Amino acid sequence: MRAVVLLSGGLDSYTAAAIAKSQGFQLHALTVGYGQRHGRELESARLVASWLGVERHLELEVDLRAIGGSSLTSDLAVPRDRDPAEGGVPSTYVPARNTIFLSLALGWAEVLEARDIVLGVNALDYSGYPDCRPEFIAAFEHLATLATRAGVDGARFRLHTPLIAMTKAQIIRRGLELGLDYALTTSCYDPASSGLPCGHCDSCLLRAKGFAEAGVPDPVRR
Fold first, then answer.
1. What CATH number is associated with residue 74?
2. Distance between CA atoms of 196 and 174, rounded to whole angstroms?
3. Is pTM, for the whole model, over 0.90?
């Protein structure tokens, strides 16, 4: 069973990919460099892909800085010490990012004759991004059938989101059960030039909360 997995180099996509592998999928990993300020995650994606033993790791460059609209692709300040549960969509939202990424994954899946796409979106411990919600996933899955030759020929694409209803602590515990090395991952939106996480952005705060609730230390902060 072939599956295309969106692999960012972060904790969630790593865990989602490992779950898919444990279910017997042959993984084809797709990582997108989109001009993100936290480009260190691309290096982490390579380490994670190697650890997972993916069949192929495809890296694509789709520079979204020209579009702008996000503090991850511009000089806008990344919000710090914000409560991710306070509601609203923060400036770290990248306009239509998951729609773009899934379109690329869908195209590659059709070429590979794969019918499964895996992504690590989460709708519990997350920053409130609209393209991480179950409604979006269901809509894109329907679109995938309408938008492809394979779909016209009767194929059905499935989007696998094994983490969507899990807390960050549950995700971490599941990953540890699978033997994952979270020291390979990068989560910070605004790391220092040394690569150390800022500890204050939404992603750092959610990660810290997850490890604390899981009762295990974060290996990245050793």
1. 3.40.50.620
2. 25
3. yes
